[in-house]
Structure formats: structure tokens, C-alpha cells
């Protein structure tokens, strides 16, 4: 199933733009068909635009737009041409009936063409039947031709026949014989069928894949420009036919040109001036024919200019809204990237790059947090929270003798061995060069001592091959190289074994984190003073 093309997600402004286009098309037909001797008959435009609106926005939005647009288009004509014998309520009833017939015609055409989904007009507009991918009819299949013929002829034929009968029955048209009714019905049917045949495929090819994509409102501006240039072309035609009001067709193009230069106030002022001149002309201020039909034609021309200009204003405003939204999205993206970068920098500032464990800063934050939480415990009992400080025996001497590369491998291996024995509630940190600190939650001092013995066994089980050259002289390796010493040897198969001393301290009630850490360090120093592989509590 092909998804429908939607102007900016079928928003309120999108619906207003479609309504303005539908109304402008109707008044274009009313205004231009009154020019003496002209062949510019545009009464077929609204029917095609209404069906395209159902395709683009869905039946739930498109059909109400057709009904409202029909009310706007026919209101001026019905009330201006109302015979004395027809009351205002009767005219309102006729106006509603005409709008209902236009809506029914669009609904029938949409249903026959399969634009409203398998469940009918109330179906999901996104579940539409496949439409031709372009405005060309040459690639359509026979089923599409069949649906298109039904949509183009059946709906308009029924509704136009009802419309003509209604106009004659209401007294708006003189009584006519059957031949006259048939002639009017055929004319309206052909006009509406032309609208469906010409407009819908053209809009389908023009809008498919563009109008629903974000940032493609330049297409709307191009359509507005095409309307403006078309109006400019009609100005000399109207002047040649001695219709001076055709100069009002310049107003939408002037407004669009001003809008492109972000001169919204000037555009509105020029539009107001043009409409003021037209209103004065309708009221006979300027020399001209004061006939009522001519005044109605001028009024239709005014409304056409107004609706076209509002359509262009809407397109321009939507385009500016899209630009602002795009800028806001870019700002939000950059803000998100900056936040992630700051969070990454914060994590890097609390992480040991070699082992991936938390560093001394992270350890201090953890101790402050745990001590603060423990201080709020009721009853004054000692919290089951212990600190285990691990120091690798002889790490500094090993690092100096074998080099930093071996020292790094020792630290990584020791971190992996210690992490393997840590429980889910424990947190391991690398607190200094060869020192690790383990925060044991829900663990009393004797439990921490048991864990320390397991950790000591795991460290003692480590055996790493020596892959760095060892200097056998008393000089450091770099000094031996400078003096030309040749007593650097690379022991073959030599391995080193590790051991560690442990200092343990359990947090006492009311104790701050600094004193707690100091007791653990003192216990570690006591263990180191007694030899290698010792465990002491503080």
C-alpha cells in the first residue's frame, strides 16, 4: 500500500492551505468565466482539487474541507443573485444542499478510485490504494482506467443532475424543458469530470514524494509562483477585453515578491490597497458600468485575489516555519551532542584509562556518598560497610626493573582478577599506582577479611611472562644505554608471580569518610611493614 502524500503532516495550516486553494480555484472560475468572449473556463478546478485533498490529507480532513470550500465559493453567488421570492432561510438551505452535493460527489469519486482505504471513507487514510506514480496516463493499467472513468463520470453526473434540479426547484433558475436541464447537467458533468481527469493526476505526479518530505516547501513556493505568473498573463487579456479590474490580478504576485524579501508588512499593505481599490470600484466610486452583474463579477474577482494571496501567504509562512523548525532541530542536535560530550568528559575524568575502573576522584565521591547515607541510618548502629585497600607487593621495583609495559600488564591482570571476585554490591577502584580499593556494601569487617583472603589467593595465582628487557647492572636501563653498557639481557621463559597486602576498615557510626579511609590506609601500612601477602584490619 502506498502512503498518502501529506503536506506537513496534515496540520491545521496544511488544511487551511488546501482550503484556500480549493476556494481560490472556485472563484477563479467565477471571475474568469465572466470576462466577455473569453474561453478561460475554470469551473472544473475545485472538483479536482477537492479529490486531491482527500488523497493527500485523508477523507476525515479532505471531505470537511470540500464542504467548507463549497460554502465559501457559492455563498456570494447564491445571496447576491437571490430572487425576491426566495427567502434568506431558503437561500441558506440551498447553500447547504449545494455544499452537501459537492461533498458527496468528492466522496463518491474518492471511493470509486480507492483513495479511502478498504474500510471505506472512515478507513485509515494511510492505507490507500496504489496511485499512479506520475501525472502521465500512458502507464496506467486497465483496472486503474476503469476506476478513473467511474470516478470522473459517475459522481459528477449524479450530483450535477441533482444540483440542476435543485436550482430550478428553488426558483433560482427559470423553468426549463427537459432538453435545457439535460444540457446544463451535461455541461456541469463534463466540467467536473475534467477537473478530476486533469487535476488529480497532475497533483499526484507533482506532490508524490515531495510534499510529505520535510524541507520541501520550496515546491509550494514554486506552485505559488506559477499561480502568480498565470495571473500576470491574464492581466493583458483582461485589459484587451476592456476589463480594467484585471489589474487587481497583480496584487498576489506583488505580495509574493515582497514576502520573498521578508517584507511582510509591506506585502499586507499593498494587498490592502489593491483590495480597497476593488471595493471602491464595486460601489461605483470609479466610472464604469453600475450593473449588478458587473458588481458581482468584480466581487468575485476581489475574493479570488484575496484567497490566492492568502494561499501564497500561507505557503510563505509555512516555509518560514519549516526553516525555524529546521534551525531548532539543528540547535537541539548540537545541544544533545554537547551534553553527550560533557557527560563523556565527566566519565573520563572519573575513569582509569588503563583498567577501566573508577579512579581516585570517583573513589572519593563514592566514599562521601556512602558515608552520608550511613549517617542517616536510625539507631546509631554501625553500618555493614567495609573498605578493603589492596597494594601489590614490590610493584614500584618491578616497574623500574622491567619497564612500564610490564607494569601495565600487571595492573590489568590484577584488576581482572579482583573484579572477578567482586560481588554485585561491591565497587572496585584503582586508587593509585599499584593500589586498588574495594568498597564492600552489606559486609561487616569479618566478612571483608574473608573476602580479602580470597582476593589474596587470586592475586598470588597470577603468573605473567616477562617480555621486557631487564637491566642486570645497578644503573637504570636508559643510563646503561647512554654509557654503552651491554649487560642488558632478555630472560627466556622468565615469569613473575604477584602478591598483595590488604588493609581493612569497617565504617563506624558517625564517622566521616576521610577518617574511614585513613584507618584503612593505616591498616595497609601495618600489613606492608610485616611483609608480603599480609592482611590487617584497622
TrEMBL record:
EC number: 2.7.7.65
Catalytic activity: 2 GTP = 3',3'-c-di-GMP + 2 diphosphate
Enzyme class: transferase
Name the record gives this protein: diguanylate cyclase
Pfam (any one): GGDEF
Organism: Novispirillum itersonii (Aquaspirillum itersonii)
Record-annotated GGDEF domain positions: 383-538
GO MF term list: diguanylate cyclase activity
Presence of the UniProt keyword Glycoprotein in the record: no
Amino acid at each position: 500500500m502506498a502512503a498518502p502524500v501529506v503536506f506537513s503532516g496534515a496540520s491545521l495550516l496544511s488544511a487551511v492551505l488546501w482550503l484556500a486553494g480549493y476556494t481560490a480555484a472556485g472563484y477563479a472560475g467565477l471571475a474568469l468565466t465572466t470576462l466577455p468572449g473569453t474561453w478561460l473556463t475554470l469551473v472544473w478546478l475545485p472538483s479536482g482539487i477537492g479529490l486531491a485533498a482527500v488523497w493527500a490529507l485523508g477523507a476525515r480532513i479532505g471531505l470537511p474541507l470540500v464542504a467548507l470550500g463549497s460554502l465559501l465559493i457559492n455563498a456570494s453567488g447564491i445571496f447576491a443573485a437571490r430572487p425576491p421570492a426566495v427567502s434568506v432561510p431558503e437561500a441558506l438551505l440551498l447553500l447547504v444542499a449545494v455544499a452537501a452535493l459537492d461533498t458527496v460527489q468528492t466522496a463518491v469519486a474518492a471511493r470509486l478510485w480507492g483513495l479511502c482505504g478498504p474500510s471505506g471513507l472512515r478507513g485509515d487514510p494511510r492505507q490507500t490504494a496504489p496511485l499512479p506514480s506520475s501525472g502521465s496516463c500512458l502507464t496506467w493499467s486497465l483496472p486503474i482506467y476503469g476506476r478513473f472513468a467511474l470516478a470522473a463520470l459517475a459522481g459528477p453526473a449524479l450530483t450535477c443532475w441533482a444540483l440542476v434540479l435543485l436550482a430550478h426547484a428553488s426558483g433560482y433558475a427559470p423553468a426549463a424543458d427537459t432538453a435545457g436541464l439535460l444540457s446544463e447537467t451535461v455541461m456541469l458533468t463534463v466540467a467536473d469530470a475534467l477537473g478530476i481527469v486533469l487535476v488529480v493526476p497532475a497533483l499526484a505526479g507533482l506532490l508524490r514524494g515531495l510534499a510529505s518530505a520535510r524541507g520541501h516547501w520550496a515546491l509550494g513556493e514554486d506552485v505559488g509562483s506559477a499561480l502568480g505568473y498565470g495571473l500576470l498573463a491574464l492581466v493583458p487579456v483582461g485589459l484587451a477585453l476592456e476589463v480594467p479590474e484585471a489589474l487587481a490580478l497583480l496584487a498576489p504576485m506583488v505580495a509574493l515578491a515582497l514576502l520573498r524579501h521578508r517584507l511582510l508588512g509591506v506585502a499586507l499593505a499593498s494587498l490592502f490597497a489593491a483590495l480597497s481599490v476593488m471595493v471602491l470600484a464595486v460601489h461605483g466610486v470609479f466610472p464604469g458600468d453600475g450593473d449588478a452583474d458587473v458588481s458581482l463579477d468584480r466581487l468575485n474577482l476581489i475574493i479570488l485575489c484575496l484567497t490566492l494571496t492568502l494561499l501564497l501567504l500561507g505557503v510563505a509562512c509555512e516555509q518560514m516555519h519549516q526553516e525555524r523548525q529546521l534551525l531548532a532541530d539543528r540547535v537541539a542536535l548540537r545541544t544533545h551532542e554537547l551534553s553527550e560530550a560533557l557527560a563523556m568528559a565527566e566519565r573520563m575524568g572519573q575513569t582509569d584509562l588503563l583498567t577501566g575502573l573508577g579512579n581516585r576522584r570517583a573513589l572519593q565521591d563514592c566514599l562521601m556518598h556512602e558515608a552520608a547515607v550511613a549517617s542517616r541510618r536510625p539507631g546509631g548502629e554501625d553500618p555493614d560497610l567495609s573498605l578493603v585497600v589492596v597494594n601489590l607487593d614490590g610493584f614500584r621495583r618491578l616497574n623500574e626493573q622491567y619497564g612500564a609495559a610490564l607494569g601495565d600488564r600487571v595492573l590489568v591482570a590484577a584488576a581482572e582478577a579482583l573484579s572477578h571476585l567482586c560481588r554485585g554490591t561491591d565497587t572496585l577502584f584503582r586508587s593509585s599506582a599499584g593500589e586498588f580499593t574495594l568498597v564492600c556494601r552489606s559486609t561487616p569487617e569479618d566478612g571483608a577479611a574473608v573476602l580479602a583472603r580470597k582476593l589474596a589467593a587470586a592475586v598470588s595465582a597470577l603468573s605473567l611472562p616477562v617480555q621486557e628487557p631487564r637491566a642486570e647492572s645497578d644503573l637504570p636501563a636508559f643510563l646503561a644505554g647512554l654509557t654503552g653498557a651491554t649487560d642488558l639481557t632478555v630472560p627466556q621463559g622468565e615469569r613473575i608471580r604477584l602478591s598483595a597486602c590488604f588493609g581493612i576498615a569497617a565504617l563506624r557510626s558517625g564517622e566521616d569518610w576521610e577518617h574511614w579511609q585513613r584507618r584503612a590506609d593505616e591498616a595497609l601500612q601495618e600489613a606492608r611493614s610485616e611483609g608480603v601477602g599480609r592482611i590487617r584490619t584497622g
